[in-house]
Design brief:
mainly alpha, ABC transporter involved in vitamin B12 uptake, BtuC, two-stranded antiparallel sheet
Amino acid sequence: MWFYCAGGLMIAKPHHALLWILAVSMGALLVAPFLGMQSISPVAALGAGLPETLAQILYSIRIPRCLLAYLAGGALALGGLVLQALFQNLLASPFTLGVASGAAFGTALYFTLGFNFAILGVGGGSIFGIGGAVVTIVPIFLLARRRLSPTEVLLAGVVLSMFFSSLVMFIQYLSDYTGILRITRWLMGGFDVVGYQAVLGIAPFTILGALVVQSNSARLNLMALGDDLATARGVNVRRVKPLLILAVSLMIGAVVSFCGPISSVGIMAPHICRLLVGLDHRRLIVATFAGGGALVLVCDTLARTVIAPYEIPVGVITALLEGPFFLWLLYARRWARTEVLA
C-alpha cells in the first residue's frame, strides 16, 4: 500500500475515472490538430471547403505532430510507471534512473559521428538511443538484484544520469557551432516534424512495449509489493523483470531519439493516474498511457500557440510543471494524513 502513503486519497471510483481519462485523452487528440496560430475549422476539414494550404498544414504537419506527441507522452508515462513498480520507488522515472540520459547520449553520439543508416527499417538514431537506454538500465537492474534499498538504487540512477549528461555536454563541446545548436535544441524536446516518418519510427516500439507491459499487469501488481512476495505468489521475477526493463528501454530509447529527452512526464502522469484509478495495474497501465499522451499533447499545443509564431520547446513546459506538481502532491499528502488523523 505504499502508493497510497505517497499520493494521498483517491478522488473517484476507479472505473469511472478510467473512462473519464480515456474520454479526455481522446478529446484532446481530436481537438489539438485544429488549434494553432491558424485555427482550422473541423467542419471545413471534413468537407471539401478547406484551402489547399490549410489542408497541407493539417494533414502533413499538425496531425503527425499530435500523433507523435501522444505516443511519446504515453511511452514516457508508461515507462515511469513500470520503473516505479519494479524498483518500489515513487521517484523512479526514465530520468531519475538515467535511462533517458543514456538514450540521449546514444542519440547525440549518432548525430556527432555523422552516421546515416538503418537496419531492418529501424533508423540508426533509434538503435543508438535504445542501446544507450539499455546500457544505462542494466547496471541499475544488477544493483537492484543485490538487495539494495530503493533509495540506494535511486541514487545510483541519479549518478548514472549525471554521468551520461556530462558525456552529452562533452559531445557538445567537441561539436561545431551548427552541431551545438542542433544538440542543444534537441535536448529541450520537441515535435518539429513534417510527415509521418517519426510517427512510424516510434509507433512499433511504443505499441510493442505497451503490449508487453499490459500483458504483465497482474504480475506488476505483485512485483510492486516486492520481489520476494511476487516470487512466493508464483511470479518468475528473474524472467519478467528483465523483459519489462527491455520493454521500457525500447520505448524510451525510440522516443528520445526522435523527440529528445522530455522530462517530468514519467513522474507526473503515473502519480495523477494513481490518485484517480487506484493501484491496480490492469487499469492503471491504460490510464497512465492515455493520461501521459494527453499531458504531452496539451503541453505541445501550448508550446506552439502561446507565443506564436514562435514555439516553446515542449520539454521546457513539462519541466516548469514539475515544481508546482510536487508542491501540490506534498500538500495533498499532508491533507490526506490530517483527514486520517481527524
